[in-house]
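The data layer described in this paper is built around a simple, fixed record for each protein. Because each token names a local backbone shape, the row as a whole describes the fold. We quote a single record here, exactly as it is kept in our systems:

***
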Amino acid sequence: MASLGRRRGVPVNRERGVMAATDCYIVHEIYNGENAQDQFEYELEQALEAQYKYIVIEPTRIGDETARWIAVGNCLHKTAVLSGTACLLTPLSLPPEYSRYVALPAGALSVACAALYGISWQFDPCCKYQVEYDSQKLSRLPLHTLTSSTPVVLVRRDDIHRKRLHNTIALAALAYCAKKIYELYAV
């Protein structure tokens, strides 16, 4: 049902955002045996490794666990960036005799969060996904086939820039802290 647009002669799809079947994977909540939870986890793992653009998780328990896992990773990322930025900007805004009391702990926190993210999340296929809350984007998904009223929807996003950002800021904070600690103990 594609027709030509009025203004530019560009093909327009009148059916809002019809999605290809290969873009979305649904982990259905179908209990057929005593190890159904293991089957849900296996299906989710396979979908993550297959790198689907959207993954819809119907089972409440595994959906909530996945959403919490992603939220913790996001919190570590944001904490690393914000505390590293605070470490680097504090010397510009506070007098030198007070700045080290804020900058050094903030720098240590940034390095610790970036290291923990790198160890725990960097190689996890789940770190490439974010929980989708935008109702306009969710309306394009085949959610009408679900039995659950509150599925968790994951969308795949490229995270190379965010990793570079928090690693760069954490390394700069580490360098600043190492320099300040050296100055404190060398004098």
